[in-house]
Design goal:
This protein has 317 residues and is mainly α. It has 17 helices and no strands. Helix 1 (3-32) runs antiparallel to helix 5 (85-98). The radius of gyration is 19 Å and the shape is globular.
Length: 317
């Protein structure tokens, strides 16, 4: 397969997954704002979203103040934010259009209609009226896009590059969602204490945001414990959005795309997967969850760069 085609398919999938995970992260933050808290605490939560997404500077250049409305608009519908849902869906659609011949008709129409319908909702003011419905709609469209791909695509290189992009992006974004609580270092130790009422609701919202609340109850059959939430989202291979599950899929798809130039990619992905597979949650927490997740995100970025060097077009930025 041509590197250009592989590049478009890889990034089409990444942008669709990023749109969904941005919605999931915003959902956690918006629900946390409903809890009793000080203005300072609410402000820290908003800044955490920007910090975890590495968008502080772009936001500061476009808005005068960090408020819930400004952050929501910036993360959902601001064309000047390259990681807003609007920008992600546009990028997914443009990448899909560039390789229209490599997609099934159903896959192309799903992505194209998602872009058109999202713009219609924004134009009609749905984000201001009912942001929750917009969030749920984006998640459902992302589910539909993946389902259509699985149900209609030939299992060839195009399929594997699409899957590779999806799961690499999912690993990155699950780590970011989990780390929202720890972006402000002063909250790190408190966040795992588990004794405060707002902590209980926060961790419940974290699980809900990754469709994991029912899974938690099935796996642990016990009250919600922050340590177990972290364990589920990092180390449980049966949790679809866990870091380990995502890395296992990355390794599987890299194996299907193996070339003479991909050994370093497979080695890096395999090493990261093995470390997750044999890790235990208590040493991770003792070391510091924020530090662990920050290092994980750095290694995912390195892996993405190696994949680009081995298979895709050279990175321009």
């Amino acid at each position: 397969m041509l590197s250009r085609t592989a590049d478009h398919l890889f990034w089409m999938a990444r942008y669709m997954e990023r749109a969904e995970n941005t919605v999931r992260m915003l959902d956690v933050t918006m629900k946390a704002l409903l809890l009793p808290q000080t203005d300072e605490s609410a402000l820290r939560s908003q800044r955490a979203v920007l910090a975890i997404s590495e968008l502080d500077e772009i936001f500061a250049g476009r808005y005068d103040a960090v408020t819930a409305d400004n952050v929501l608009r910036f993360m959902v519908a601001d064309p000047g934010n390259p990681s807003s849902i609007l920008s992600c869906l546009r990028a997914a659609r443009e990448n899909a259009r560039a390789v229209r011949g490599a997609l099934t008709t159903e896959s192309w129409e799903t992505i194209n209609h998602t872009w058109l319908d999202f713009n219609r909702q924004i134009d009609e003011g749905m984000l201001a009226v009912d942001p929750d419905s917009v969030f749920e709609w984006v998640k459902l469209r992302s589910h539909l896009s993946r389902g259509v791909t699985l149900g209609t695509a030939l299992k060839d290189e195009a399929f594997y590059f699409t899957q590779l992009g999806t799961f690499l992006e999912r690993a990155d974004n699950t780590a970011r969602i989990l780390d929202v609580r720890f972006a402000d270092g002063s909250r790190g130790s408190r966040a795992l204490a588990g004794a405060q009422l707002d902590d209980f609701y926060y961790w419940t919202s974290i699980l809900s945001s990754v469709s994991g609340l029912e899974i938690y109850r099935q796996v642990y059959r016990d009250v919600l414990v922050p340590e177990r939430v972290a364990e589920l989202l990092i180390l449980n291979p049966s949790m679809p959005r866990s870091l380990l599950a995502s890395l296992e899929h990355v390794c599987e798809n890299l194996a299907m795309l193996r070339t003479d130039n991909s050994r370093e990619c497979e080695r890096e992905a395999g090493k990261l997967r093995a470390e997750l597979l044999y890790a235990e949650i208590r040493p991770i927490l003792a070391r510091g969850l924020h530090q662990y997740l920050t290092e994980f995100l750095g290694r995912i970025a390195i892996l993405g760069n190696r994949i680009s060097s081995a298979f895709l077009l050279p990175l321009t930025a």
